[in-house]
């Protein structure tokens, strides 16, 4: 809803592509280090003039508010935001940043104004949720047409639990269910008869286990690698009837545009049985090195994970797989006491930097690699694109060597969509803009 009611310089369309918003056009100069945005005609919701300076201030404030977050790290190459003459805003970068537009389209980079929302829709809350309605064409930066109201509809939003949302969809009370994850996937019918109703997004991102504490069988990178080796990733997916799911052993999603190919999938020449034999032997040698005194607690790993139906299936499968190498998996009583936590996060943009920034030591999310952070910092200052790719690949290799993250594959996002709904398209960001669903095709 934030993306619908608060606008940024640019936005995402149903396909996940960048489109104009408060800026109606832009160009890139100086080898990708300067982005120049020309603002559309219009005013702020409070009636004041939307000047380049007021937009500069709003954008600078949004960027400042993200300090200390992973998204703030993604924006680290922004050196300066300038207000220029003639409703022009200029963003200067320390080095080229091909994904800047994708970042500026994130809801967190929307431009706020005390007079109300700057997005395409107005929001009114009621006892049953909220109602979103499209603003007039001029308020959305479009030419005015007299019959515009004939081609729009209100969008009624309800915050529901997964089972209730599915039940109401099946009863015909709801046309779209958004926000489905692997935890709720077993509640939806993903069989062949549901084709066209259950829509799976071809997302990229992180889906796996982050190591929170280096103790017991997670004490060293070699032991953590043994845990990663023991996991049969295709077997995890088979429990959910997911077609097209992409397993991976990499920190960075495979197949990204312009991936230099320096980092490959791990253990491709070994069967899962061979990997588990190696992992079990490594843990047995560790126990022997302890003088055989490693107790049950040392061989037990706690995982912070929810109790939704799909997560229960995932936990049981992981527990069964790790038991084969002599490791007991239990649920953590609290996040603070967890040895591992489940990461289920869709990428904001399709570049290695997003993945690497998720494990920055500055975020204090769990084990990390200061060496990898150093290489990322070096890459941000590097002007040569090929050398920058090499540094980022070295950073991924450092995280992989440290085994602070045990990847499974791509995150799962799904929706239920009735056939008469326009403006919905599956995309790699799992992001579905509501304004497009409010438009009735002419």
Q: Care to describe what's here?
A:
- This protein has 442 residues and is of the alpha+beta class.
- It folds into 3 domains: 2-109, Dipeptide-binding Protein, domain 1, CATH 3.90.76; 121-202 and 413-437, D-Maltodextrin-Binding Protein, domain 2 (3-Layer(aba) Sandwich), CATH 3.40.190; 205-409, Dipeptide-binding Protein, Domain 3 (Dipeptide-binding Protein, domain 3).
- The protein is 28% helix and 20% strand.
- The chain has 13 helices and 17 strands.
- The strands form 5 sheets. It has a 5-stranded mixed sheet. A 4-stranded antiparallel sheet has the order 3-4-6-5, covered by helices on one side.
- β7 (121-126) and β8 (129-134) form a beta hairpin.
- The radius of gyration is 24 Å and the shape is globular.
- It starts with a helix and ends in a 5-residue tail after the last helix.
């Amino acid at each position: 809803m934030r993306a619908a009611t608060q606008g940024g310089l640019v936005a995402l369309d149903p396909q996940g592509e960048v489109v104009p918003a408060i800026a109606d056009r832009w160009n890139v100069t100086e080898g990708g280090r300067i982005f120049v945005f020309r603002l559309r005609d219009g005013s702020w919701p409070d009636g004041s003039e939307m000047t380049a300076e007021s937009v500069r201030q709003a954008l600078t404030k949004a960027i400042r508010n993200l300090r200390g977050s992973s998204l703030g790290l993604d924006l680290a190459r922004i050196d300066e935001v300038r207000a220029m003459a003639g409703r022009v805003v200029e963003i200067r970068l320390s080095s080229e940043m091909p994904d800047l537009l994708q970042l500026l389209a994130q809801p967190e980079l929307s431009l706020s104004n005390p007079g109300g929302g700057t997005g395409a829709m107005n929001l009114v809350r009621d006892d049953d949720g909220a109602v979103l309605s499209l603003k007039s064409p001029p308020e959305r930066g479009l030419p005015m047409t007299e019959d515009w109201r004939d081609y729009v509809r209100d969008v009624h939003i309800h915050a529901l639990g997964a089972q209730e949302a599915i039940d109401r969809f099946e009863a015909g009370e709801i046309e779209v269910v958004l926000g489905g994850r692997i935890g709720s996937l077993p509640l939806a019918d993903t069989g062949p008869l549901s084709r066209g109703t259950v829509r799976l997004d071809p997302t990229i991102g992180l889906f796996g286990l982050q190591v929170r504490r280096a103790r017991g069988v997670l004490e060293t990178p070699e032991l953590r690698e043994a845990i990663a080796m023991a996991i049969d990733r295709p077997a995890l997916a088979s429990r959910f009837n997911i077609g097209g799911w992409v397993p991976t052993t990499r920190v960075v999603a495979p197949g990204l545009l312009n991936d230099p190919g320096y980092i490959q999938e791990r253990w491709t020449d070994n069967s899962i049985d061979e990997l588990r034999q190696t992992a079990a032997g490594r843990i047995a040698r560790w126990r022997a090195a302890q003088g055989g005194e490693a107790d049950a607690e040392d061989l037990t790993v706690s995982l912070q994970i929810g109790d939704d139906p799909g997560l229960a299936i995932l936990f049981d499968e992981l527990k069964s797989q790790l038991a084969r190498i002599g490791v007991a998996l239990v649920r953590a009583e609290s996040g603070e006491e967890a040895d591992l936590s489940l990461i289920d996060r869709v990428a904001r943009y399709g570049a290695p930097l997003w993945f690497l920034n998720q494990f920055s030591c500055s975020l204090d999310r769990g084990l990390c690699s200061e060496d990898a952070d150093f290489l990322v910092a070096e890459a941000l200052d590097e002007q040569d694109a090929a050398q920058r790719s090499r540094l980022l690949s070295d950073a991924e290799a450092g995280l992989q060597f440290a085994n602070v993250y045990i990847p499974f594959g791509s995150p799962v996002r799904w929706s239920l969509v009735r056939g008469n709904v326009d403006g919905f398209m599956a995309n790699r960001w799992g992001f579905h803009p509501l304004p497009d669903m409010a438009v009735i095709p002419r």
